[in-house]
Amino acid sequence: MTDKQYNEIPAVRRSALWEIRKSPMHYKYAVEHPEEPTEALRFGIAAHKYILEPDTFFDEFVTVPKIDRRTKAGKEEWAELLASGKEFVTESDMDTIRAMDAAIMAHPTANALLKTGRHEVAFQWLEGTTNEPCKCRADCLTEYKGNKYIVDYKTTTSCEDGAFERACRSYGYKLQAAMYTDGVFNQTFEEYGFAFVAQEKKPPYAVRVYFCDPGFIEEGLELFKSLIGTYHECRLS
Length: 237
What we know:
alpha/beta, 5-stranded mixed β-sheet
C-alpha cells in the first residue's frame, strides 16, 4: 500500500485524533486543512523510507545534485527530475541519512528491532466501544527475544535523559502506542509489545531504544478511548 492509498482510507488516524484533545474544532480544521510538509518532515519521511525499506527507496526518491538552472543543460536536467514524479533528496541529506542508517546498524538492539520483520504494515479496524473506523501503519512488526513488538522509528533533536519523554507528551506518542497495539490485536488476535527507536538527526546520530511498559500502554488506551469517544459524539451531532 502506498502512502497515497493509505491516506485515502476513510478512517481515524492517530495524528489527527491527537488534535481533538484541544477541541473538536481543532480536529475538524486539521482534517480539512492538511499542512504542507515542512523540510524537516520531508527529511524524516526520506530517512524512514531508507532505514526501513532501503531496497525500494529509489523507486520513490531521487538524489538531486547541484544544478545550475540558469543554463540550458541545467534546465533540461531539472525538467527530467520533475518528470520522474519522485520526491527529491539533496546529496547532503542523503549523506546524513546513510550515516544515520549506519548508526542504527551499529546499535545491536535497534538493528534487531528495525532491520527484521515486516515493514510499513497498514491496519484497519472498528474501535470496540464506538464502532468508529480507525487505521494505523506500523513501521515494523518483528520479534525480539521471543516477544512480538510493534516498533516505531522516530527522529529527534536529542536522546539525552528526559528529551524523548518530553516529546512523548508533546506529540502524543502514548496515544500512538496504545492505538497501534489495539489495532494490531484487533486484526491479528496476538499480543504485541511496543518499542520506540529514537535517533538524533545530527552527528553522532545517537540512538536510544524505549520499550513501553504495560502502564504506559494502559494510560494511552484510556486516552484513546476518551478521544475517540469525543470524536464519536461530535460526528453523531
